[in-house]
Amino acid sequence: MTLLILHTRTASRRKHFAKAVETAHALGHRAIVVVEEPSWEGEYVDEVYTAPTGDLRATVARCVEISQLEPEPIAGVIAFVEHSVPTAAAVAAELGLPSISVDTAEKSRDKLSMRQAFEKVGISQPRFALASTVEEALEAAESVAYPLVMKPIIGGGSMFVRRVDTPEELAEHFEDIREGAWAGFDYDPLFILKSKYSEGILLEEFLPGNEISVESYVQDGVTTVVAVHDKPTPMDGPFFEETFYATPTVLAGATLAKVEEYTALAHQGLDIAQGATHTEFRVAPSGEPYILETGARLGGGPVYQSVLLSTGVDMVEVLTKVALGEVADVSVDPARVRHVGFSLHFGEQPGELAAVEGIDTLEDRDDVAEVMIYGKVGDQIDVPPRVWQAQGHVLFTGDSREEIVRKQREVNETLRFRVR
């Protein structure tokens, strides 16, 4: 039998690939990848196939063709990047394999449909509206209220997300964000929603408070929260690049209980009955969590390794087993939970990457579990809000939250991306 990994290229998923292939091989299965422009993926899998992954229908047709070319039947389909989730669901449906539904996969990427689904199940969330023109935006802002956040409908990684505080700022920045919110994701299979929404974007109420992310697994409709990451660095705008995660959370009591309740409700609203999810909240000073979004996938970048280091739960192994028809037991032993943090790093400015300083110093530290640089010297890089992925990350451990915060400052002072 064969595991098919449907992929949108990003170097931060190397560890995901390695574990998925290791798990598939241990179960006696082949592992293949379908990607538009192969690069490093061939280092891990048994076969690399190409497909125009920005075109959902064409990719489904190509995967059907691949299923006929493969020496073993395809037994499961998984995706590690959010842009690939709807296509993976469509491929699974076409091949008769277990998966979330196509409708659920699309709702987990279409942020307007997601907001409407959350509304139906009664989860606390920001006020929101859709706007296609400056005039519509200014009118909608009267009910959404300032400050507000402009964001793409199919975006990811906080790319083309911006806070504005006044009608003047909204008028000044609306068109630039609206244009980028579609042009910046023209490779996305859901780019076809551009005409449905008249090239519009979301306006959402800006909520004060700290952000968290929740990593969960759903099996037979039952949610297990595996880990909660805090984002200790304030994210107040105007842009919302994510630079620091730490787990376990400092939340407790009624607030944490409500986070877990709302996470399960989000799965219910989106009809996610199986698989991993990544849910983000803003927690108000009152302790009330407000849901931002839920992805029907693992958290991006080093979230996978952070959860593994902290809890001992290998979410990629779990997902691979389930995709191949095996039973997976997901449980967290509180006695095993460790303090883990990771930092995400961007260039100083747009331009050509000239050097990355501090790698050797960090790799020599016993408390640094991983330093990963996604590109190479000579690459052209950009900065938020025009990128959805950082240029690298550092994963580290500690004995307390205070120690994790201190180490994050040390990492930031050590790792530098020089641009010319």
Average pLDDT figure: 94
Question: In CATH terms, what is the architecture of the largest domain?
Answer: 2-Layer Sandwich
Query: Can you identify the CATH class of the largest domain?
Result: Alpha Beta
CATH homologous superfamily caption of the largest domain: ATP-grasp fold, B domain
The biggest beta sheet, please? 4 strands, parallel
Low-confidence stretches: none
Question: How much helicity do the residues have?
Answer: 25-40%
Give the percentage of residues in beta strands: 25-35%
Instruction: Give the number of DSSP strands.
Output: 19
Q: If strands are numbered along the chain, what order do they take across the biggest sheet? A: 3-2-1-4
The best one-word shape is: globular
Give the helices and strands, then pairings:
Elements: E1 2-6, H1 14-26, E2 30-35, E3 47-50, H2 56-69, E4 74-78, H3 85-95, H4 102-107, H5 111-121, E5 128-131, H6 134-144, E6 148-151, E7 162-164, H7 167-183, H8 193-196, E8 201-205, E9 210-219, E10 222-230, E11 244-247, H9 253-270, E12 275-283, E13 289-295, H10 303-311, H11 315-323, E14 339-345, E15 351-357, H12 359-363, E16 368-373, E17 380-381, E18 392-398, H13 401-414, E19 416-419
Parallel strand pairs: 1-2, 1-4, 2-3
Antiparallel strand pairs: 5-8, 6-7, 6-8, 9-10, 9-12, 11-14, 12-13, 14-18, 15-17, 15-19, 16-18
